[in-house]
From TrEMBL:
One Pfam family it belongs to: Peptidase_M28
UniProt GO cellular component terms: extracellular region; lysosome
Subcellular location: Endoplasmic reticulum; Golgi apparatus; Lysosome; Secreted
BP terms from Gene Ontology: proteolysis
Protein name per Swiss-Prot or TrEMBL: Carboxypeptidase Q
Length: 577
């Protein structure tokens, strides 16, 4: 289908030569040890310079955990394993009784990060003093719960024939003093499914197991390549396009392809910089894999005030261009960006798309500042194909289960799909960087707030009163209707409307996506919509010993939500006068 995007002339300039050269180079370059990661940063910078694109290397000091080897010994047999980053170094070995806590394997990206272990088997009595074995990945919610209940170690049974690399800390980025109590202190190992089944039999027989993990942890100098393509009308305002260049092993689909797409976008935009109204900033992050998004979090911290004042949107580029990824399904986007994203994808590819609320994952390190955000994963394989291949859900690589394994090699990338996805990202970035009025529709958020509040009220029944929040959301919806009508009839100019659209993100993104105050980072755990009042979903399950405390939390949460929405309403009404 022909491209109908208004940026067709730029899209036609996208080629596969420079990006594919990077993909091929990175397919031979492991990128999780700090020395290798630094080499990759210089490689990216060298390629940009060779293309005539100016680049700077910012130096970050990151706290990272570098995993090496792990093993699990039981029943006279030793099983190879992978230790997730931030597991405890335990080279000497830890031996304890092995206990099974059953868990379900997620079949959807939407539930991939949700704890799924059996609540009865998760009792402290069953867990304390034991090494726990449980199905699934070594994601932080599970590890944190087991450690808090006294587990001495954890073995995660991954779903398939390969075990997966990962990171088990719930701390987002480099820890601060308040985060340190959540730093894992137990060894953790991931085994493949066949070995896990053998270990389950040992657990069922009441056997013991020994975990060994070899880890390195500390502070590391890390380089962040950054490109600024200046806008001609509002150069201080910018769109942030970003993705991680460190990886597990050579990580072709996660995320050499993303690095390559951003390289090509930098080339095309630099050659056409006169067409930009706003600046496009492109950044490649280290510390994604071994620091729970430490690179992007460092940047969010270090440049927080600039981001707060001037960033109009952040766009994450992770795992584009993978084989069989012919659909745009389960794409991450905040609701106010949905129609813009769908239109962009349709204009470039002719495909319809479906998206979801961003997961508390990827390099979404900017929620607490309050940035309108879209994309993380982009294209993926059709669900029917995934079922035919008997693939379980993973967090990248276009759905390929080579994700986070040594098999994420060159064959995972697809030249044609990478070319197409690069064009989508380019068009999306251009759409924000050149728009007269920023293309984000906050009316959709007001409607979403009303739906969320109504569902929470239904769940809570008479146990809570959410009417102040419901009234605030209704008032915001009315104010936004008038605001956008004023934009459409010309009463409000772009210069008047855009500061309001940007400021709305600073108010409404945090209240919808965070629990922590602005400029702090929530844990890497799922965050429900309007999280301050999400406890409403569970009120009916609290007994008499806790219901009063839960209701107190609800009152405070309603106050936070209603006050934030009222602030947004006053902002909108002030612009419409």
């Amino acid at each position: 289908m022909p491209v109908t995007s208004p940026f067709a002339s730029l899209i036609d300039q996208v080629t596969i030569d420079a990006p594919w050269s990077l993909v091929e180079a990175f397919s031979k370059m492991p990128r999780w040890k700090p020395v290798d990661v630094e080499g990759a940063a210089h490689d990216i910078a060298g390629r940009l310079k060779a293309l005539g694109v100016p680049v700077r290397l910012e130096e970050a000091n990151l706290h990272l955990s570098i995993p090496y080897t792990a093993s699990v010994t039981a029943g006279g047999e030793t099983f190879n394993a992978k230790p997730p980053a931030y597991a405890r170094d335990c080279r000497e070995g830890l031996t304890a009784p092995l206990v099974h806590v059953p868990a379900t394997i997620s079949n959807s990206i939407n539930t991939l990060f949700v704890k799924s272990q059996d609540p009865k088997a998760s009792s402290e009595e069953n867990i304390r003093g034991k090494i726990i074995i449980s199905e699934g990945f070594s994601f932080p919610g599970k590890i944190l719960e087991f450690e808090e209940k006294g587990a001495l170690g954890v073995i995660a049974i991954n779903p398939g024939a390969d075990s997966h690399h990962g990171i088990c800390t719930s701390i987002w980025g480099t820890p601060d003093l308040d985060d340190l109590p959540r730093k894992p202190t137990i060894p953790v190992a991931a085994v493949n499914n066949p070995d896990g089944q053998k270990l389950l039999k040992i657990a069922q027989a009441g056997g013991e197991v020994t975990i060994r993990t070899e880890m390195e942890q500390g502070w590391y100098k890390s380089l962040i390549p950054v490109v600024d393509i200046p806008g001609s009308e509002e150069p201080e305002k910018f769109v942030l396009l970003h993705g991680h260049y460190d990886s597990w092993d050579v990580g072709v689909g996660d995320n050499a392809t993303g690095d390559a797409a951003m390289l090509e976008i930098a080339r095309v935009l630099w050659a056409n910089k006169g067409e930009l109204k706003r600046t496009v900033r492109i950044a490649w992050w280290p510390g994604h894999s071994t620091g729970r998004y430490a690179g992007s979090t460092w940047y969010a911290d270090t440049h927080a005030l600039d981001l707060d004042e001037n960033c109009v949107a952040q766009v994450n580029c992770d795992s584009p261009g993978c084989r069989w990824a012919t659909e745009f399904r389960d794409v991450s986007w905040m609701k106010e960006t949905e129609s813009f994203c769908q239109q962009t994808i349709r204009e470039v590819t002719g495909l319809e798309s479906q998206g979801d609320r961003p997961h508390r994952a990827g390099d979404y390190a900017f929620n607490n500042i309050g940035l309108s955000s879209f994309f993380m994963l982009s294209s993926t394989m059709p669900e029917q194909l995934r079922k035919e291949k008997d693939y379980y859900a993973v967090g990248g690589c276009g759905g390929n289960i080579a994700w986070h394994t040594e098999h994420d090699q060159l064959e995972i990338a697809d030249k044609d799909i990478l070319l197409r996805d690069t064009k989508v990202y380019l068009a999306a970035v251009m759409g924000v960087a050149t728009a007269g009025v920023l293309p984000f529709d906050w009316r959709t958020i007001a409607a979403e707030f009303s739906e969320t509040i109504a569902s929470y009220q239904e769940a809570a029944g008479s146990l809570a009163d959410l009417s102040p929040a419901a009234k605030a959301a209704s008032d915001l919806a009315a104010a936004l209707e008038a605001f956008y009508a004023s934009i459409e009839n010309g009463t409000l100019t772009p210069a008047q409307a855009n500061p309001v659209i940007q400021r709305l993100a600073r108010i409404l993104v945090p209240v919808n996506h965070t629990n922590k105050p602005r400029f702090r980072h929530d844990p890497a755990l799922p965050v429900l919509p309007l999280p301050a009042i999400a406890v409403a979903k569970d009120l009916a399950g609290y007994g008499p010993d806790k219901i009063g405390f839960a209701q107190t939390q609800m009152v405070r949460g309603v106050n936070r939500v209603a006050a934030a929405i009222k602030d947004a309403t006053r902002l909108v009404q002030g612009a419409s006068k």
